Amino acid sequence: MQKNEKILKAVMNGEYNDVLISYYGEDKMFDNKMRYEEALTVFGQIYDFKRNCRVYSMPYSVLLAGDGADIAIPTDKDFICVAADNGTNISRVRCRDHLGEDNIDLYAHGPYGMESEFTIGVIRGVQQAFLEKGYRRISGIDMYIDCDTLPSFGLDEPAHLATAVAYIINDMAFNGERTEKELAEVVQWALANHILVDSYATDVYSSIRGKVVTGDFTDAENPVITETEVDMKGNSLYVVTVGETDIDMPEEEVDPRLDAFMAKLGKEIETLTEAEFYTILGEMEEVDKEAALFLMDYFTQENFGVIYAENAVDGMGSPSVETTKEIEKESVGGAVKWHCKAKGVCWMVLCCVAEDAKDAFETAMKKLFGDECLEKLNVARKPAGRVID
Known about the structure:
single chain, alpha+beta, Ribosomal Protein S5, domain 2
């Protein structure tokens, strides 16, 4: 480990440029360098520039589940974290674009219902999963997180955060001794019990390895994880920053708005090609953005199905994990005051777009959500790990 201030100075002076290029490529190096500088600076301001720390990266994986084995694709969109042991039983967590600090006590077990939609619930769940499974060497960690997939913000992917935190705890407390299978079990237990969602082990393996993998869990105790080259069938992955939209509209409002929107399109969605849909979307004067987002996801899921069918292998996908803990209605005293909460709504959606629809898609998205709304994702260059130690 090195002192925070030494790492920050080296990053600012360009000493880690080659390392960052190896993670993100030359075209994305500068923007990511700014992320690391900010993360190290904020960590130092809050937790002391003299602290010894490590800097981690965890690729965000896109899961293509199906009737057979699961397929997961790691991307160059990642979680980064500056982390240091603090020698107590309290983990302290701050996040970019969030207000406040989460304080997670190893001995306040939960799960607490009010935490289930927030970052704190994921981290508490991961800590408790380690203890639940008898891995008892963990202590408190100070973390500053830069990530667009935090619960209640961005892509809202608690599995990405849970995988990253599990990896960091394994590295800092166990010197990496816990296996990929054990970490996948930690993540699934944490999300089932503290966030109340099903999750899949396959994308945990994919993120940790930084490789496209298939996961065959026919024998759940001895899963077959295979690294592979995935045929995207000409499709590309994008993240679209859509701003403050009512994506979580009540269910009873969805169908009437979709019906009205498709009446404006002039055709049923099933009769339109993807390129036709985005062309019409880009030409419409007034757009119901929420309805458009629902239909964009229709085409994304269709494309995921094509990719899955092309790459599917025999076997059984990752099984869900049953909830075993009773939810406590109230959180520990004062927790509501220190929750990390998003400063504002900055929703992001994941889109999978066919080659012949890309131009129309990009034109429509920029018209609806602004010139800077698009981020094209590539397959990850690196596995999870310490970027800087």
